[in-house]
């Protein structure tokens, strides 16, 4: 039953000793992109990289505008732990 096709119209049987030709490229092959698609991808990557740089600069400016934060030890040194304004018992 190793002919081109079986009488019932089923696919031909493949012997394990013979290698069947690949009809589809494997999933690991890289896609064949046209020049236009490669340019689109490159433009998108450049836009994303610029957006990340802009975001980082904006966050640094915001952090500078807030000023240095007081360390936790200095912030509550005057008051004992508990509710603000509450006297210790």
Could you characterize the architecture of this molecule?
- The structure is a single chain.
- With 89 residues, this protein is an all-alpha fold.
- It has a domain at 33-64.
- Helices cover 40% and strands 0% of the residues.
- The protein has helices at residues 35-66, 72-75.
- The chain starts with 34 loop residues before the first helix and ends in a 14-residue tail after the last helix.
Proportion of beta-strand residues: under 5%
Helix amount: 40-55%
Q: Average pLDDT, to the nearest integer?
A: 73
Report the structural category: mainly alpha
Give the overall shape, derived from the CA principal axes: elongated
Taking the alpha carbons of the first and last residues, their distance comes to: 96 Å
Total number of beta strands: 0
Number of helices: 2
What Rg is obtained from the alpha carbons, in whole angstroms?
34 Å
User: Order of SSEs, N→C?
Assistant: HH
Biggest sheet layout = none
Unreliable parts: none
Summarize the structure in short.
Helix content is 40%, strand content 0%. The protein is an all-alpha fold.
Write the layout of secondary structure elements.
Blueprint: H1 35-66, H2 72-75
Provide tags for this entry:
about 90 residues; 2 helices
């Amino acid at each position: 039953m190793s002919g081109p096709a079986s009488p019932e119209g089923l696919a031909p049987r493949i012997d394990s000793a013979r290698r069947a030709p690949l009809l589809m490229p494997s999933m690991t092959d890289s896609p064949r992109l046209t020049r236009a698609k490669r340019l689109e991808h490159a433009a998108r990557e450049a836009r994303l990289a610029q957006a990340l740089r802009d975001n980082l600069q904006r966050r640094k400016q915001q952090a500078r505008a807030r000023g240095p934060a007081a360390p936790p030890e200095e912030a509550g040194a005057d008051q004992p732990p508990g509710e603000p304004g509450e006297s210790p018992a």
